[in-house]
Specification:
Layout lengths: L2 H12 L8 H16 L3 E7 L5 E9 L2 E2 L6 E3 L4 H8 L4 E3 L12 H8 L1 E11 L2 E11 L7 H101 L5 H35 L9 E4 H9 L3 H6 L2 E6 L5 E4 L1 H19 L9 E9 L4 E7 L29 H12 L3 E6 L5 E7 L4
Parallel strand pairs: 9-11
Antiparallel strand pairs: 1-2, 1-7, 2-3, 2-4, 5-6, 6-7, 8-10, 11-12, 12-14, 13-14
Helix pairs in contact: 1-2, 1-5, 2-5, 5-6, 7-9, 9-10
Bound molecules: adenosine-5'-triphosphate and magnesium ion.
Keywords: Coiled coil, Kinase, Phosphoprotein, Transferase
Pfam families: GAF (PF01590), HATPase_c (PF02518)
Organism: Alteromonas marina
Length: about 450
């Protein structure tokens, strides 16, 4: 190839404009270079429509100026010979365009008026498919297109294909960026919505819990207070009666003894009821888990845990329940021993009270306490092989005042106190695994300083 053509090609192919994705700039660069190399003043880019029934001009440069190309369309119907030549997919080198079999159809309407004598059309390919042509038009005396010139123009057409690819890539990148941006925004919006929903949920759960709590306290405390009140008013009536008898001189020894018996029974009942109410309030205060008396100490678990559990053994033995304790030796932790004692007594007495009964048919009723250390802290489990707790009650058993043993004096505060202690005071976790017939395991994990 002639050196100057080679140089132009090299220069164009090295220009970043080709691969930047800005097709307009690349098109202009290519057409201007075609004109420069072939020493012509008029050239353009024509692209097929989808069905290859026409070609439309996307850029036409004449003497360095862009010509209005919007209405420039050549259809297969009007120029069948030209399209036939295009269909071959090869370069059309019409040395004498007026008579050439591919281009003669343009003679009257186009070539002669514009003084075009020779035409060189090179195919533009994209992804292996011909998508259009670069059309080089020579004005003046007809010329013989040289092989070098044809190769040169074809190479520039290839560069145009490269520019289209870059343009597509840039489009995809833009779309991808846009999609990412939308996605990010969507995620942000959704997260916000979820957070708001969660806040609401927590708030409404809190309100519900508070409502239950107040209703529970009112109910629990009201019962003994009601009994005490009735008893005291009874005593007051009796006192009025006895005083009236006394005023009227009708008070007998027997009457007075009766009065004494009724009143002391009534007052005892009032006293126990008030005690119960007071205890309930005391218990209830404990649920707030805001106990200041939780002192931190260093304890050796295989000493401490048996020390807490062993005293419970006789009570369990009475009900044919076997207690086993499995604690690794030499596990020393710094924690609040009070909470460990409280959780153990609470869980073991729950097992004793609720897990077994006539419906449970075990060879041996067992409660096992085990303990270990995990990454998160100290893990203590109390497991029984009793009747278990159905899944729908797993949340409920931790609510204040939920009990299935009210008739036996249960208040339903045990697990709630434990829950609040572990979760709020110690930032730990409490986990219940249980199903009917499979027994119950409650595992508590308390973070400790290692
Ligand atoms: N090991 C268990 N097996 C079966 N059910 C259990 C077990 N532990 C607890 N429960 C159920 O959970 C309920 C709530 O327990 P929680 O300790 O909070 O209250 P309680 O033992 O009934 O009363 P309190 O502990 O306040 O005296 C119990 O009434 C019982 O129905
Ligand atoms: Mg309990």
């Amino acid at each position: 190839m002639k050196e100057n053509l080679e140089l132009i090609l090299l220069r164009v192919s090295q220009r970043p404009d080709i691969d930047k994705g800005e097709l307009d700039v690349a098109s202009r660069l290519i057409i201007n270079s075609v004109c420069e190399g072939l020493e012509i003043t008029r050239a353009g880019i024509w692209l097929y429509d989808e069905n290859q029934t026409l070609v439309q001009c996307t850029l036409l440069i004449d003497k360095g100026n862009d010509l209005d190309n919007e209405s420039l369309v050549l259809t297969r119907r009007d120029f069948p010979h030209y399209f036939e030549a295009l269909d071959s997919g090869r370069t059309i080198a019409a040395h004498d365009a007026i008579t050439d079999v591919a281009t003669f159809e343009f003679a009257e309407v186009y070539l002669t008026p514009l003084g075009i004598s020779s035409m060189l059309d090179v195919p533009i390919r994209h992804r292996g498919k011909m998508i259009g042509i670069i059309c080089c038009e020579h004005q003046g005396k007809a010329r013989q297109w040289l092989d070098d010139e044809m190769v040169f123009a074809a190479s520039l057409a290839d560069l145009y294909g490269r520019a289209i690819s870059a343009n597509e890539r840039a489009d995809y990148e833009q779309q991808l960026l846009e999609a990412n941006r939308t996605l990010e925004q969507k995620v942000k919006d959704r997260t916000k919505e979820l957070e708001a929903a969660q806040e609401k949920l927590v708030e409404s759960e809190k309100m519900a819990a508070l409502g239950n709590l107040v209703a529970g306290i009112a109910h629990e405390v009201n019962t003994p207070l009601g009994i005490a009140l009735t008893s005291v008013s009874n005593c007051k009536e009796e006192l009025k009666d006895i005083y009236r008898d006394f005023e009227n001189g009708e008070l007998t020894e027997e009457g007075f003894k009766d009065f004494e018996a009724i009143c002391s029974e009534g007052l005892s009942l009032a006293e126990t009821s008030l005690m119960r109410a007071a205890n309930l309030v005391q218990d209830f205060k404990r649920t707030s888990a805001d106990q200041t008396s939780l002192e931190i100490e260093e304890i050796t678990l295989d000493e401490y845990i048996p020390r807490v559990c062993n005293p419970l053994k006789p009570m369990l033995r009475k009900e044919q329940i076997e207690l086993s304790i499995d604690v690794p030796s030499d596990l020393v932790i710094t924690t609040c021993p009070g909470i460990i004692a409280q959780l153990l007594t609470n869980l073991i007495s729950n097992a004793q009270r609720h897990a077994f009964g006539p419906s449970v048919d075990n060879e041996v009723n067992k409660v096992s306490v085990s303990c270990g250390k995990s990454e998160k802290g100290i893990v203590i489990s109390v497991q029984d092989n009793g009747k278990g707790i159905p899944a729908e009650l797993h949340k409920k058993v931790f609510e204040p005042f939920y009990t299935t043993a009210r008739d036996k004096g249960g208040t339903g505060l045990g697990l709630n106190i434990l829950y609040n202690l572990v979760r709020q005071k110690f930032n730990g976790e409490i986990d219940l695994v249980s199903s009917p017939g499979e027994g119950t395991t409650i595992t508590v994990c308390i973070p400790v300083e290692s």
